[in-house]
Amino acid sequence: MKRIICAILLGAGVMYVILHRNLRRTNDYWLPPTDGGDRKGQIIDCPYKPGVSSLIKGEKFYPFLCINDFVKVSGDHGSHRIELPYGIKGAERYFHMALSRLQNCRVFTEDDRMNNGPVVGYEEDVGRKTTFRLFYPESSFSDPIHYDPNTTAVLVVFKTHDLKWLWDLLSGQRLIRTNAFWKKPATQMIYKSHQIRILDPAITRKTAYELLHLPTRFSKHVKPKHPTTGLIAIAFAFHICSEVHLAGFRYNFEDRNSSLHYYGHDTMSLMIQNEYHDISAEQRFLKELVDRSIVVNLAEK
User: CB within 8 A of 204, min separation 6: which ones?
Assistant: First the structure.
């Protein structure tokens, strides 16, 4: 057996996920595409942890979009009928633009954490290995001090401006419009194009509707709820790993002044006031995962 340990660092109120993936040295494990679109032989043949199949309805599928077939794959998943953030309808041109700047869409590099949660200076808390880092423009690093050549940076797309932002930075264009973002995004890309992937919106959609059971419609007076990057990471992990270990997925609702992250000075009051996430639903789901032994909570070991 070949064991690959993947670490995901979470910056939105959580710390990191340690993903264990067992691959057999046979032809049934996930082979990386060589041309950005050939998916033959890429489905991992490793069993789900007991209970995962009841959470993730349907078969596992390739987690990243590839330029050669993302329209067809989106059609297979039903994403072609859904607008962003959980589909591609009306944004196909922007997906094509962004994907055209990426060198490949493989899951693992030959050797083979998240948001803007730093590693440098926090090794005692989060370790030293970051295999995947999920991010969006507002949470991407700009300072090269955080660059890791062994990290695969995974863009979670919420709006067309996210795709345009990625294309601009990888094309060497000057980022002019920043008012389309809720916070000023990174103005330079510290990762190389071969390190960047785009997450299939179908995984984010599964997280929202199948795992958290968030409403599909909201009245005009209610802010729509979306899963946190941490929950999206767990759904992503279920698609590529046979075991998932978690650490840092806990909020202290009793003390609004308690630390939100392992870094910085944000407190729980910031997350409690956030209208775009249903933290209570996420905590219930995480408790179910632990209670049913679907994941291992390292904080309890």
Answer: 85, 86, 156, 226, 227, 232, 235
